[in-house]
Task: inverse folding
């Protein structure tokens, strides 16, 4: 009788559906296990306890880097004592950026290193920015510049959005 029921289930597709569900559950569990394994061996992996958010992760990645508040960035801009480096991609930069900023995505920092060193030696504060509180690009750029001996480099968190909201000078296209 059990064999007849199994045969009937195969004919109706119920057996196929239950098999697919079990395979899906297995794949989800396998994926979670692989992800947990990679997270455990990855430096700076996600923590398993406590509150986590992209913002807190981005803040922890900025450790050792000095952030600059909007008011101070604006004061340095007005005094001509800052050089802003836009860490976003070229398309975002050309759609709009802080007036006078340079487009320096983190992967291109080495190509612009000589010019950036000249700016730093001229006592200009180097300020790296991108868009969004959890955007890692300005942090990556600042860290790579510091490792190349350019100091001090400050990070302007959520710089593009905050600069625009404040109504400070922006431009399209440019360097």
Result:
């Amino acid at each position: 009788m059990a064999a007849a029921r199994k045969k009937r289930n195969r004919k109706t597709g119920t057996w196929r559906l239950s098999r697919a569900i079990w395979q899906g559950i297995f794949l989800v569990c396998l994926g979670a296990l692989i992800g947990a394994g990679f997270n455990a061996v990855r430096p700076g992996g996600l923590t398993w306890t406590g509150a986590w958010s992209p913002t807190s992760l981005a803040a922890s990645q900025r450790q050792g880097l000095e952030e600059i508040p909007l008011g101070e960035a604006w004061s340095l801009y007005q005094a001509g004592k800052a050089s802003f480096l836009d860490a976003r991609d070229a398309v975002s930069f050309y759609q709009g950026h802080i007036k006078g900023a340079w487009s320096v995505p983190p992967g291109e920092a080495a190509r612009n290193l000589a010019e950036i060193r000249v700016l730093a030696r001229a006592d200009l504060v180097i300020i790296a920015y991108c868009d969004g509180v959890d955007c890692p690009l300005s942090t990556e750029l600042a860290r790579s510049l510091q490792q190349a001996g350019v100091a001090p480099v400050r990070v302007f968190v959520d710089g593009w959005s905050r600069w625009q909201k404040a109504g400070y000078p922006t431009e399209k296209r440019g360097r």
User: Anything to note?
Assistant: Helices lie at 2-12, 14-41, 54-61, 70-79, 90-95, 113-121, 137-147, 159-166. The chain has two domains: 2-48, 61-171. The longest helix spans residues 14-41.
